[in-house]
Amino acid sequence: MELFDAFAMRRSVRAYQSRNVEDEKLQRILEAVNMAPSAGNKQAYGVVVVKSEAGRHRLMEAAYGQEFILQAPVALVFCVDPSRNADRYGTRGERLYALQDATIACTYAMLAATDLGLATVWVGAFDDARVANVVGVTEPVHPVAILPIGYAAESPEPRPRRALAETVHHEHW
């Protein structure tokens, strides 16, 4: 698949087949995550792979009952480690660059999954402390996104986008 095809095909999917994600495909997604750019190559993020039904159930509960998290056969939890950026970038590195690193990595995972014929949805609505407990991270590390991955059981239509003229501005904005 060409990159622009992946951009066009990616959808937020909230219904998944019971079919498991092949280990080879999951590995390819994780390899894509590892290739994501980061501030100063500090890679201020970590990813927790949650495949067990019990773990996904706990994630679903921590994410205010979003059932598709349990329905998908795997969920990746992207966590930020601000301390990895502190020595080089100070407070800005801790508060912003680390967050950007984790979200770029999650975006790479979404696009890799699309390329492999899988579906995802970015989940940002959750109780941070409860998700941290589920995946076993402690401060300063904390979760920033949950990415359920599986085979789609729905085909959402493309959502409307703002016109480029509304979002793109050239100098002197």
Question: What are the defining features of this structure?
Answer:
4 strands, about 170 residues, NADH Oxidase, alpha+beta, four-stranded antiparallel β-sheet
Instruction: Write down the overall geometry.
Output: globular
CATH superfamily: NADH Oxidase
Oligomer: single chain
How many domains make up the 3D coordinates?
1
Mean pLDDT: 95
N-to-C series of helices and strands: HHEHHEHEHEH
- Helical amount: 40-55%
Estimate what percentage of residues fall within beta strands.
5-15%
Strand line-up in the sheet with most strands: 1-2-4-3
Distance between the termini: 36 Å
Low-confidence stretches: none
Give me the count of strands: 4
Tell me the CATH architecture: 3-Layer(aba) Sandwich
CATH class: Alpha Beta
Main sheet overview: 4 strands, antiparallel
CATH fold assignment: NADH Oxidase
Rg calculated over all Cα atoms = 17 Å
Give the class from helix and strand content and strand pairing. Answer: alpha+beta
Description:
By secondary structure, this protein is of the alpha+beta class. The protein has a single domain, classed as NADH Oxidase (3-Layer(aba) Sandwich), CATH 3.40.109. 45% of the residues lie in helices and 14% in strands. It has a four-stranded antiparallel β-sheet, with helices on both faces. Helix 1 (3-9) packs across helix 5 (83-115), helix 2 (23-34) crosses helix 5 (83-115) and helix 3 (53-62) packs antiparallel against helix 6. The protein is globular and about 45 Å long.
